[in-house]
Write a structure and sequence with these properties.
The chain has 1 helix and no strands. It is mostly helical.
């Protein structure tokens, strides 16, 4: 009977260690997905701003040329 209890305790502890490893990995994966998503949004915003700056610069150049300055 003593060996069965020892085996049961070891099996439960082993399962808990495996489950905690899976949980830590899952939380880490969620964190990485969030970081990648934020980085993608930041890059997209930067590209949009660069496009807007280029368009405004071009329109300013055209406006100056039309005025003859």
């Amino acid at each position: 009977m003593r060996e069965a209890a020892f085996f049961t305790v070891n099996a439960v502890l082993f399962f808990c260690v495996l489950a905690s490893g899976v949980l830590v990995r899952w939380f880490h994966q969620r964190h990485l997905v969030g970081q990648i998503s934020l980085r993608h949004d930041l890059i997209q915003s930067r590209e949009d701003l660069e496009t807007e700056i280029a368009q405004r610069t071009q329109s300013n150049i055209e406006l100056r040329e039309s005025r003859g300055c």
